[in-house]
């Protein structure tokens, strides 16, 4: 592992998806700039929350870290190993250490496979154990996530959304990974079930010393589960700080606007609070604005904001921000 107990180090990572035209001869006419030049790290045993509105590049960031999408440029380090240089068997072996819990529990489980086969699949792919040992391991994993080990031969359609997400968690844990990307694992679930899944993730983290990248829309849930929080806007990370620092002293205008939308469960405080309403729509990632990407909607933008991309800098202890005005 690298310096300061850092497990994952992302260095100027960029992911662009080409836009092509033509039927026989396809030519590239542009690119969706999904993730653009992001730099951050995730320390061993912590949960880094990643928040931002829909389409800002959160899920692409998670998938690119795991090399499910190959980055257009930049580096991703797992400890001292550069993942972007791994291919074939080397990358396959690394996958044992990194897993993902997908957003939609209805789409991420194969409807033609039994629960036992779904959870055992990673063990088979990596050649771990014989059939009897794998079956015992699957039963143990089902118990671990709060499901009956007798559900082995059932199919996904026989389970509720919350139960399916638990099956997804069991599958992610099968190879005993160190790092898990949780891609909005609760957004498709009822509020009552969300708390159960989050509590399960916290218990598993304590038991196995897991490291999470927790991607979500729900700022109050991210505050509950994460140690540090990164805020993303249109493919760029605009602010990163410890949880309490970010929620009590947000510096970037976009972070301030996001947090002003979170309800406070105190009517007296809620009535006095100023909401920050952003003008206009999110620009297209195909043709993002020059300079700071937030400048067309920013209430405090100055001339330099539309001309120069702000530098990613540390403005306080472990508090990073990309803004000319801060």
Helix run count: 10
Radius of gyration: 21 Å
User: Termini separation (Å)?
Assistant: 33 Å
| Order of SSEs | EEEHEEHEHHHEHEHEEHHHEE
Q: Could you tell me the number of beta strands?
A: 12
* SS class: alpha/beta
- Helical proportion, percent range: 25-40%
| Largest sheet: number of strands, sense, barrel closure | 8 strands, mixed
Main β-sheet, spatial strand arrangement: 6-7-8-3-9-10-12-11
Average pLDDT number: 90
Which percent band covers the strand fraction?
Answer: 15-25%
- Note the overall shape: globular
Could you walk me through the main structural features you see in this protein, from its secondary elements to its overall organization?
The chain has 326 residues and is of the alpha/beta class. 30% of the residues lie in helices and 25% in strands. The protein contains ten helices and twelve strands. It has helices at 58-65, 88-94, 115-125, 131-144, 161-173, 191-208, 219-225, 243-248, 253-260, 267-272, and strands at 6-21, 27-43, 47-51, 73-78, 81-82, 98-101, 179-183, 211-216, 228-233, 236-242, 313-316, 319-321. The strands form two sheets. An eight-stranded mixed β-sheet has the order 6-7-8-3-9-10-12-11, with helices on both faces. Strand 9 and strand 10 form a beta hairpin. The radius of gyration is 21 Å and the shape is globular. The mean pLDDT is 90.
């Amino acid at each position: 592992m690298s310096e300061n107990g850092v497990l994952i180090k992302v260095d100027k990572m960029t992911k662009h998806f080409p836009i092509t035209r033509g039927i026989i001869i396809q030519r590239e006419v542009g690119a969706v700039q999904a993730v653009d030049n992001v730099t951050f790290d995730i320390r061993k045993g912590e949960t880094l929350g990643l928040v931002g509105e829909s389409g800002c590049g959160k899920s692409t960031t998670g998938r690119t870290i795991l090399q499910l999408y190959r980055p257009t440029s930049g580096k991703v380090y797992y400890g001292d190993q550069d993942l972007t240089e791994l291919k074939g068997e080397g990358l396959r072996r690394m996958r044992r250490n990194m897993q993902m819990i997908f957003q939609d529990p209805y789409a991420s489980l194969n409807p033609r496979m039994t629960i036992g086969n779904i959870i055992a699949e990673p063990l088979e792919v990596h050649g771990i154990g014989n059939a009897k040992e794998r079956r015992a391991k699957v039963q143990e994993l089902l118990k671990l996530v709060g499901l009956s080990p007798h559900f082995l031969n059932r199919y996904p359609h026989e389970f509720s959304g919350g139960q399916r997400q638990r099956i997804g968690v069991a599958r992610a844990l099968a190879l005993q990974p160190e790092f898990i990307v949780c891609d909005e694992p609760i957004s498709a679930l009822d509020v009552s079930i969300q708390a159960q899944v989050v509590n399960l993730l916290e218990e598993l983290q304590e038991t196995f010393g897991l490291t999470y990248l927790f991607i979500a829309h729900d700022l109050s849930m991210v505050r509950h589960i994460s140690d540090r929080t990164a805020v993303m806007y249109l493919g760029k990370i605009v602010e990163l700080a410890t949880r309490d620092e970010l929620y009590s002293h947000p510096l970037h205008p976009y972070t301030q606007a996001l947090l002003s939308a979170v309800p406070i469960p105190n009517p007296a405080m809620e009535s006095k609070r100023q909401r920050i309403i952003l003008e206009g729509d999110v620009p297209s990632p195909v043709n993002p604005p020059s300079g700071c990407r937030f400048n067309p909607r920013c209430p405090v933008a100055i001339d330099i904001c539309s001309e120069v991309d702000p530098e990613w800098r540390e403005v306080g202890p472990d508090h990073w921000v990309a803004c000319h005005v801060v």
